[in-house]
Design goal:
Nucleotidyltransferase, domain 5, 3-stranded mixed sheet, single chain
Length: 405
């Protein structure tokens, strides 16, 4: 016969989903208070004492099974002079008290941060997850430290992390680090570790950033001089142009030097060179676009998809409807990497001019009544998809239409 018994255990509960089976000789039922249902039948447990002993042994075995290695979750809010770190340990599935501390954002601060982590016996392996926001250059010391100590680190988008908090009132550096720590704990199952810091990639990024800044200065000076022509005297204009001439020539020479350093950086790294040669086979992609794609994707270390790159560049269209009241047009989102979007736009114009495939596509869509910018965006999307395809397949771009012809 089957008899259902209810038994109590401070470590077992209905939520754990365990149903235990035991055997009893007599029809008498021993009463134990609690929330776990035990199904008992013939002919093992004869008395209440036998049942209690069996439950005690079972509790010990289950606790041993439940005991896992401690999990550690770190959230760090980084600024230029210092960073605030918060640590949450989970031991035997129980959250411990969150600890917070502030360190200077330099080599000495990193050493103290290391000692602080060792004090709390943090495991420098996959049982730890550290979350920071992308701060440009200010998080590089922490990123380099995590790379050296084999600590998984997730460098997340600041807007995405902020919106995940829901309604949050008030903020300071310590609270932000605690929120990042809680974010790491709640989303640990879906967070992907950022690839290790690559010094060569950081150098390439810095060179591209320096080139952009110098170009802005050069264009700013030229624009200023052109605007003065409309309001200033010719004598004054000539004097100013003479004064600016040395500065403009110096900036142009600096840009040339940096461009040569960029080429040397690509040539001296086998993986950079391999991906660069694949990217420039895609119609419309030139030298600068290929280098920028290597920089903004961390040399495609995360194995992104074409749709992810198109979304990041702001060329992927999204529907905008809701119920019966909202009937918006399908359009791209304003949140995008504007520099990459600009380069893809220039690539699309070049593809239309130099490749018959895209020229025919543009004319066909134009005849269908499509807007010019809508067609250009579709071509930008095609270029982004093909750029990722050649990297993932490790094969040069092949024009199937030309081969078929």
């Amino acid at each position: 016969m089957w008899t259902n018994l209810t038994t109590g255990s401070d470590s077992l509960s209905n939520s754990s989903g365990f149903i235990t089976h035991a055997v009893i000789q007599s029809a008498a039922v021993f009463s134990l208070s609690g929330r776990i249902t035990i199904r008992v039948y013939y002919p093992l447990l004869r008395t209440w004492t036998d049942g209690a002993k069996w439950l005690s042994d079972y509790k010990i075995k289950r606790l041993i099974i439940m005991q896992t290695e401690p999990q550690f979750f770190l959230g760090i809010d980084i600024s230029k002079p210092y960073f605030d770190a918060s640590l949450l340990a989970v031991i035997n599935h129980q959250k411990q008290q969150m600890e917070s501390e502030r360190f200077t954002n330099d080599a000495a601060g990193i050493k103290l941060f290391h000692k602080w982590l060792k004090f709390f016996k943090l495991s420098f392996d996959e049982n730890t997850m550290l979350v920071i926001e992308n701060t440009g250059i200010y998080h590089r010391l922490v990123w380099d430290f995590c790379t050296q100590k084999n600590i998984p680190i997730h460098i997340g988008n600041a807007a995405h992390i902020k919106w995940s908090f829901g309604i949050a009132r008030g903020k300071n550096d310590k609270i932000d680090s605690q929120r990042l720590c809680s974010y790491a704990y709640k989303h640990s199952d879906e967070l992907k570790a950022t690839p290790a810091l690559n010094p060569a990639l950081m150098q390439l990024k810095d060179l591209m950033t320096s080139r952009s800044k110098l170009l802005s200065q050069l264009n700013g000076n030229k624009t200023y001089l052109n605007e003065l022509k409309q309001v200033s005297d010719k004598t004054i204009q000539a004097t100013l142009e003479k004064a600016y001439k040395a500065a403009i020539e110096g900036i142009k020479q600096s840009i040339k030097n940096i461009e040569q350093l960029i080429k040397d950086c690509i040539a001296n790294n086998d993986l950079f060179q391999q991906h660069y040669q694949l990217l420039i086979t895609v119609p419309g992609i030139g030298h600068l676009t290929a280098v920028y794609l290597i920089c903004c994707t961390n040399n495609f270390a995360s194995k992104i998809s074409g749709k992810q790159l198109a979304c990041y560049a702001g060329v992927a269209p999204f529907e905008h409807t809701s119920g019966i009241s909202v009937r918006g047009r399908t359009r791209v989102h304003k949140m995008a990497n504007k520099d990459l979007k600009k380069l893809l736009h220039l690539s699309a114009l070049s593809a239309i001019k130099n490749y018959p495939e895209f020229a025919v596509y543009y004319q066909r869509k134009k005849a269908e009544g499509k807007h010019s910018l809508s067609i250009l965006n579709a071509i930008r999307n095609k270029i982004a998809l093909r750029a990722v395809a050649v990297i993932n397949k490790q094969k040069q771009y092949v024009n199937n239409q030309q081969n078929a012809a």
